[in-house]
Design brief:
Layout: H1 4-17, H2 30-37, H3 41-53, E1 57-60, E2 64-67, E3 74-77, H4 80-87, H5 92-95, H6 100-105, E4 112-122, H7 125-131, E5 138-148, E6 157-163, H8 164-167, H9 184-190, E7 196-206, H10 210-216, E8 224-233, E9 238-247, E10 251-254
Parallel strand pairs: 3-10
Antiparallel strand pairs: 1-2, 4-5, 5-6, 6-9, 7-8, 8-9
Helix pairs in contact: 1-3, 2-3
Length: 262
């Protein structure tokens, strides 16, 4: 049986989603909600904590609780990788028109603010095992953040790794000034003759770190989704690995698996 604070949270959630409470609206005071639902103020605070954790409501100290302006949702499917591969060899002018973020959010290039940082690093035991290289191998670490220009937090936090010796033949791939690269990582790899055979993605969830909460603009109680994306070429080599941190309150992931006919 649902607890009383859970049913109250569900009632408020329904009102918000039905448009009875709009973004920016102030919720009734805790005492008013207490009278309405005939429960104690601590029970109301529990209910509010639930919908705050879902990102529906934000508490402004000294002012009250307000319905949050919903942020852009990320719809990520496994079909995006074939979409990227199909674009990798297209003319640059066509690749410049749109990218994976636009694909996942429905926005256009001019809507986005993009940031990239490159740094040399070495493979720790985890990365060495993933790449199949000795620990200490030189890697190129790339950190990406992209946000909607009407919002203050990025869609996700990306840390991408390449084996430096694999990509060093093309100096353009070592320079963050060339970002955003039209066509993304698959196009970058195509520039050095690498074709991807498959991509694996492992998804886990956990509470965010303090830094992740601040950078992603998370409210208390919202978890993050961690995706480890591993790109494997037609020779069976791991050629790129990304650890991507998504905000749990505005990310949807859909995985479609074609099944063989009997």
């Amino acid at each position: 049986m649902a607890k009383r604070y859970e049913t109250i949270a569900d009632a408020l959630r329904t009102e918000i989603r039905a448009g009875q409470l709009n973004p920016g609206d102030r919720l009734p005071s805790e005492s008013a909600l207490s009278d309405r639902f005939k429960v104690s103020v601590p029970t109301i605070r529990q209910a509010l904590g639930v919908i705050q954790g879902e990102g529906l409501v934000e508490k402004r100290h000294g002012t009250g609780n307000f319905v949050r302006q919903p942020r852009t949702t990320i719809y990520r499917t496994n079909e995006r990788h074939q979409w990227e591969k199909d674009r990798a060899r297209k003319p640059q002018a066509e690749r410049e028109k749109t990218g994976a973020t636009e694909h996942d959010t429905g926005l256009v290039v001019d809507d986005l603010v993009f940031q990239a940082e490159y740094e040399g690093t070495t493979a720790n035991e985890d990365l060495a095992q993933a790449f199949g290289v000795p620990a200490g191998t030189e890697l190129l670490e790339r950190r990406y953040e992209t946000r909607y220009n009407q919002e203050d937090a990025p869609f996700c936090l990306v840390r991408s790794f390449l084996v430096r010796d694999v990509v060093s033949g093309n100096p353009d791939l070592l320079n963050a000034d060339n970002e955003p690269w039209p066509g993304g990582t698959q196009s970058q790899l195509h520039a050095i003759g690498i074709e991807l055979d498959r991509i694996t993605e492992r998804v886990t969830a956990r509470p965010p770190t303090v830094e992740e909460s601040e950078r992603l603009g998370l409210t208390a109680g919202v978890s993050v989704l961690i995706v480890r994306k591993v790109s494997i070429d037609t020779q069976g080599r791991v050629v790129e690995l990304s650890d991507i941190t998504f905000p749990g309150d505005r990310t949807e992931m859909l995985f479609t698996t074609p099944l063989s006919r009997w």
